[in-house]
Amino acid sequence: MRVLGISGSLRRDSYNSALLRAAAERLPGGVDFVGFEKLAEIPAYDGDLEESGETPAAVADLRAAMRDADAVLIATPEYNSSIPGALKNALDWASRPAGESALMGTPAAVIGASTGMFGAVWAQAETRKVLGALGGRVLEREFPFPRAQDSYADGELTLTPEQSDALEELLRELVASAEEATEARAQAQAAAVA
Questions:
Q1: Is the distance from CB of 119 to CB of 112 less than 8 angstroms?
Q2: Which end of the chain is less crowded, N or C, counting CB atoms within 10 A of the terminal residue's CB?
Q3: 159-39-109 Cα angle (round to 5)
Q4: 65: how many CB neighbours lie within 10 A of its CB?
């Protein structure tokens, strides 16, 4: 089983990238974590560029990574009460061509860290809405990590036992959803062959 992790932040010392690493460490045994590291390389979505048939390399890599994943986990900061532009842009590219979303049927969850007291809950809600529009099987729960700067040192976030338990519960739910999706696909393929 493979979980694709995407941080919505481009900052080198990103709290959300650190949160994603903390999540990777808490995944159940037997689950591989793969981080997508090319968010900054994805150009602004351009319908003319899409129609030209010249898919930018980073976009092709994102789509392939999403299609190869059994589940997707996004850690997002909150910019102006919503999704960071680079993350939204990448998800727009992943949704194309129309009707062929790279996330179609794939379980997805969103977590978030912020320097404020709410832990990016609005950005998480907006990101879940977008992932649903892409056809993802979205977990309707959040994991807010407020005041991340107080728990950050040397590239790592220190989670309280309660935060760790809540994150592990979300990850177990994501993996269980991925297992259900895999089983459903296998049954559908078996029925098509029969």
A1: yes
A2: C
A3: 45
A4: 21
| Alpha-carbon span 2 to 58, nearest angstrom | 20
What's the Cα-to-Cα distance from 155 to each of 18, 80, 134, rounded to whole Å?
6, 25, 32
| Sign (positive or negative) of CA dihedral 186, 26, 34, 111 | positive
Q: Is 177 helix (H, G, I), strand (E, B) or coil?
A: helix
**How far lies 135's CA from each of 29, 56, 161, in Å?**
27, 22, 34
From CA 66, how far away is CA 53, in angstroms rounded? 20
Q: Which residues contact 46 (CB under 8 A, 6 or more apart)?
A: none
User: CA of 89: how far to CAs of 42, 54, 96, in Å?
Assistant: 8, 17, 11
Residue 105 carries which DSSP code?
Answer: T
Q: Which helix (H) or strand (E) holds 51?
A: helix 47-51
pLDDT tens-digit profile of 150-168? 999 999 999 999 999 999 9
3-state SS, residue 34: strand
Buried b / exposed e over 115-126, threshold 16 CB at 10 Å, is eeeebbbbbbbb
Report the amino acid identity of residue 116: G
